[in-house]
Amino acid sequence: MRYNERELLSLSRQPAEKAAEILMRVPKKGSVLKKRLVKLVVNFLFYFRTDEAEPIGALLLEHCRITKEEENVFSISFIEEPERKYCFECDSEEQCQEWIEALKRASYEFMRRSLIFYRNEIQKMTGKDPLEQFGISEEARFQLASRKQ
Amino acid sequence: MKLNERSVAHYATCDSPTDHAGFLRKRVERHHHHGHHGTSYQRRWFVLKGNLLFYFEERESREPMGLVVLEGCTVELCEAAEEFAFAIRFDDAGAKAYVLVADGQAAMEAWVKALSRASFDYMRLVVRELEKQLEEACTSLAACRKSPRRSSSGRRRHLSNPALPPVQEKQHVLENGYSTWGSPDREGGHTKPPPLPPRRRSAAGSSVPALQESPVSPETTCFAKLHHWYGQEIAALRQEWQERQKRGHP
């Protein structure tokens, strides 16, 4: 699958929601924990060798599952392959929880659901559709019912 | 740079919400040995999901051919030999633009609109704005109870809007107020929305007078009466809510 790698690289250089040096292990046979600079930018998680400017790789964080594993450790896996886990070992339990929370909120789909929820609540409380001011109230993606198309 | 391509391809083809889809012709530059290039257009099936624009060889293709990540870009109409052409251009000046051609005026406008609003940042902005509005709506509701004497035009508008119907609603709000979709994991919330006052229940089930039984009608000129009546209802609701809180009800 082709993709605009240049733009993805550019994105990896943008200010991050969250960044830290964390031990990471990819779901490949024989792979071990390695220290990586891990950087969350919009719905992508980039990971770099600590001394390099270009990321080794990126993970799109849609349809992923963030799981707390053992102490200080969490994993990212994807819906269609739940056994293939990217593992991350943090310095502390606190750091681990922070990353879990941040990653769970990082997807576009999460924001979409939040938006629909807030819209609905505001509408119920005030009788007005708050999306009208943005001119996007009719867009299919913001309708409560538009879960599956 | 590696990308979790299998998962990305799966996301492209699964039944998560599609923000826009349709055929577009994609400009392709061809470079010949002698240095001059030809331009041709290839018809592809495009699917927009969130900030990702996928394109497929055919509508029925099971895997995307390509992906355009829509961050740091602008979408504009472009001067091309083709009618109904628009371009996705990136802030990074050296990056190649994608020139796409729609089937007609309406299709082009719909695509430009959808793509302009596709970025994660745009979505985040809207969500934050709504979060703020919800907080304000809750705050103003709470404020009504505290100072029944003071009248402000803001509150008056709210109070004299008995267009708010008694909402029939299942009191069923999952953690963070929205149900999960798709993913097996229940995602944790971010700043939780402030606790909302409980909904008006239908007259049958509630100790609070339903709207229809109001002794005053919206046309009443006696604002103080309306104010007092609504104030009582809110006070009762608030008390109920506080009791439920004490009982540990979320």
Automatic annotation (TrEMBL), chain A:
Gene Ontology biological process terms from the UniProt entry: endosome organization; receptor recycling; retrograde transport, endosome to Golgi
Stored InterPro entries: Boi1/Boi2-like, PH-like_dom_sf, PH_domain
GO CC field: cytosol; early endosome; recycling endosome; trans-Golgi network
Species, as recorded: Phasianus colchicus (Common pheasant)
Positions of the PH domain: 15-108
Gene (name only): PLEKHJ1
SMART domains with a match to the protein in the record: PH (SM00233)
Name of the protein this chain belongs to: Pleckstrin homology domain-containing family J member 1
Domain of life (superkingdom): Eukaryota
UniProtKB/TrEMBL annotation, chain B:
Gene Ontology CC terms: clathrin-coated vesicle; cytosol; early endosome; recycling endosome; trans-Golgi network
Biased composition (Basic residues): 148-159
Assigned keywords, A-Z: Cytoplasmic vesicle, Endosome, Golgi apparatus, Phosphoprotein
Keyword Phosphoprotein: yes
Database matches in Gene3D superfamilies: Pleckstrin-homology domain (PH domain)/Phosphotyrosine-binding domain (PTB) (2.30.29.30)
InterPro entries: Boi1/Boi2-like, PH-like_dom_sf, PH_domain
Main localization, broad class: other
Region (Disordered): 148-217
Keyword Phosphoprotein: yes
Biological process per Gene Ontology, one example term: retrograde transport, endosome to Golgi
The protein's name in its UniProt record: Sesquipedalian
Organism in which the protein naturally occurs: Phasianus colchicus (Common pheasant)
Gene: PHETA2
